[in-house]
Amino acid sequence: MLSVHIYDKGIQVENHKIKILYNLSSPLEVNEQKLDTFDILLVNAADKMLIRQNEVDKMTYAIFYIDEMELVRLFQDKHLLFACDSSQEKNDNFRPLRECLTKLLLANSEEDPFAKVSFQEYTYKLYLLLMNHFRISKLSLGSLSLSERFEHYIAEHFQSDLSLVKISGDFFMTPQYFSKLFKEIMGVTFYKYLTAVRLDFAKNQLLDSDKTILEVALDSGFANVNAFNRAYKEKYQELPSDFKKVQRKQEVQDVKADFQVLSQLLEGQIAEQQEDNQQDLFIDVSDRKATDAYWQKVINIGDVTKLNQKRTEEQFLDFQSEMQFEYVRLKLDYPEDYNRGYSYFEEESYMDFLVRLNLKFQFVLDFREFERQESYMTYLKGLLSHFSNRYSIERLRQWRFELDYVTIFDDQKCQYYASAYQMISDLLKCYKIEESLYGPGFILGDISSFRLFMTKVKSGIIPKIDHLTFHVLPHIANKDSKDNLVFQTVTDVNYIKNQLEMVQTELDKSQHYYHIVEWRDYQPYHLWINDSTFKAASIIKNTLACLGMLEDLAWSPPLDSLLDHRNGNLTFGGEGCVSQHGIKKPSYYAHSFLSRHGRDLLAFDDKALVTSSGHNISIVSHNCSPLNYRYYSQTDDNQHYRYEDYFENLEKLSLNFDIGGMKEGTYLIKTRVVNSKSGSLQDLMSKVFLDDVTTFGDSEIDYLKSQAVPSLTLSQVTVSDGHLNWQIELQANEICYSHIIYLY
């Protein structure tokens, strides 16, 4: 069970519990790092926590002790590790965590029976927050020795009824051979080693004054109290109960803070509850600046060779005629048949088509392929020479080149990358390419790799890179101090914005341009999310969140027919915003609404973008709902929930726009909406195709094309005093485009 203690002096905590420190006072030094007021640090059960005594300022902090075994029992998972440090990471998930810890502290300080029930309520909420948003997994790199395999196995199974027969069978050996081999490798018999592991764990458990001797014995893998007492006394020459009494006397006394004192200390850490879900935006039409439509610059092209197929070519023409992207980002693959007489005919086949659309190229040079192929530089030189003659040197100089290396950087990788970057940069300078080489393709959120790489740049080992590129992936991977791979699922609703702010803080005032070259945020068991209205709302939400921070954000390939992993179904969870049969998905309309921006930016917040051209005003808005634990925790296809069950809430949102400084007269307001009832192919198919029917023909496709469109409403208003109050009510995961047109 969860226990809470408040301290006013430095302590060292060595018990085998998950420990969450919540600082309530001036900065603390915890495990050699600084925690500011209201910072949170979690230390896993196997690790120690050291809080240094502050001789100058008064200390007040709380530690929440969580019994790891309770979490194991609740969530049926023995591999529980967490990463939670608000001093090192910017993450919106700290807000509900901080609020939950605050409510636990307040409930713990009251004697009222209702407060005790409230404490239980927020205890389970805390467990869910940790499991949903702060859990990590580890993967050991390289092969393990037999001794390490023995250690890992016993560490995982010692709390169960582990026998020689069981472990020898799992290692595919006879009990006799295993017993002999184990003693040769480990230096002790299997049972002595197992008992030692259990006793080490038990001794840490005894530090918890809330647990009985019986509970400690059973949690440590002993069959009963007698067996535990015998083994413990044999090793430590005292009974567990004697050790527990001594520890109780030596415990650092916690502080008994009353409710009023805590309430004052924690003021502002609980969000005020709004009576309704409403948001206001005040707009002065005279206060305007040029719109930087960074979201309209780059689109990933996917498998570019598929543009040679007529249907795919027609779909792309239709898409580009409306969206008007400036660059296509495509990987420059080294040809398998490359030789000195190579003709570049295959590249011409798709590049000619894209050049006719007046698109520029952002070529991706894969560092791994560059390193593998000795002739890659020769191929690249030939390509630049060939197409400078075919299209003109002026056009070629407008292209971009990007050396991409999606990896966890170390010293050696940094050096190899630096060499390749310098070589390619020198070649591009010969052709006077306008923009310097982009790179290196950081995984957004891998702050350790980023810090190491930029340190190498600062020291001159890696050339300065003006245009920094990032990949947004559904999981973050980095290495811990023992060289294990650590994985964490991204659950922060403002992940891109928060991570970019961390990058800017790290670089301080250094001049760099930031480019997101890939945005892949869906979980592998939830491909359906790409076909949903949530995807459309998420596109607009993230576009607004990064406004003013990015040079561009390269969206996913626009067509399902440009993807490798496709099938014959109407939809299959592809990243494209047009199905392979040419039916537009909600994500298409998100791009379409954003592309209709005006010349001037008037205002924006996290829900809406307001632009204008002359007296006409465009408003793009969304009501993106947060995903819940079902979405992030599901790891197989066997669990089936309704679409609605994957969200924290499905509340409506009311947006009020108070627009001042408008020209007096009559305006026509056109409002287009995409939600579950209009513009959603996914929802439309659930109504058309009953009982898992998958057979369809051209007439069904034509019907879906005609029906999967936004709804349209028209209204007319008169502005007499220069002010217009316009209200929009959005359903969950709904997107809206309102065009306010001056008539007379």
Supply the key terms.
744 residues, alpha+beta, Jelly Rolls, Arc Repressor Mutant, subunit A, four-stranded antiparallel β-sheet, 24 helices
Describe this structure in words.
37% of the residues lie in helices and 21% in strands. It is an alpha+beta fold and 744 residues long. Among the domains are: 3-137, Jelly Rolls, CATH 2.60.120; 146-237, Arc Repressor Mutant, subunit A (Orthogonal Bundle), CATH 1.10.10. A 7-stranded antiparallel sheet has the order 12-23-24-25-30-27-28, with helices on one face. The protein has a 4-stranded antiparallel sheet with strand order 1-8-3-6. The chain has a 4-stranded antiparallel sheet with strand order 9-10-20-19. Strand 21 (513-519), helix 20 (533-545) and strand 22 form a beta-alpha-beta unit. The radius of gyration is 30 Å and the shape is globular. It starts with a strand and ends with a strand. The model has no long low-confidence stretch (mean pLDDT 89). Belongs to the glycosyl hydrolase 39 family. Pfam families: Glyco_hydro_39, HTH_18. GO terms for molecular function: DNA-binding transcription factor activity; hydrolase activity, acting on glycosyl bonds; sequence-specific DNA binding.
